[in-house]
Design goal:
Elements: H1 9-30, H2 35-97
C-alpha cells in the first residue's frame, strides 16, 4: 500500500535537494561573474550537495534499519501470542472432549 497521491518523506527531501541544486546552478550561471569563478562555485556547491545527500542517505538507512528491527520484534511478539493462544485453545478443546 503505497502513498500514491502524496509524496513520501524521502521523495520530498530528494525533490527539495534537486530543486536546490538546479536553482543554485541557474543562479550561478546567470550571475555576472567570470567563468572560472562560476565553475569553482559550481564545484563547491556540487561537493556540498554530495555531502548532504550522503548524510541524508545514511539517516534514511539508519531509520530503515531501526524500522526493520521494530517490525521483527512485533512479528516475534505476535507469533508468541498466536502460539500461546493456539496452545490454550488446544488444551481447552482436549478438556472439553474428556
Amino acid at each position: 500500500m503505497g502513498n500514491e497521491k502524496g509524496c513520501s518523506g524521502l521523495c520530498c527531501v530528494l525533490s527539495f535537494l534537486i530543486g536546490t541544486v538546479v536553482g543554485g546552478g541557474i543562479a550561478l550561471l546567470g550571475a555576472p561573474t567570470s567563468g572560472k569563478k562560476t565553475r569553482e562555485q559550481l564545484k563547491t556547491m556540487a561537493g556540498d550537495a554530495k555531502e548532504k545527500t550522503e548524510g541524508y542517505y545514511d539517516e534514511v538507512k539508519d531509520k530503515a534499519s531501526e524500522a526493520t528491527e521494530k517490525v521483527q520484534g512485533y512479528y516475534q511478539e505476535a507469533k508468541q501470542t498466536v502460539e500461546s493462544t493456539v496452545d490454550v485453545a488446544k488444551k481447552s478443546f482436549q478438556k472439553a472432549i474428556e
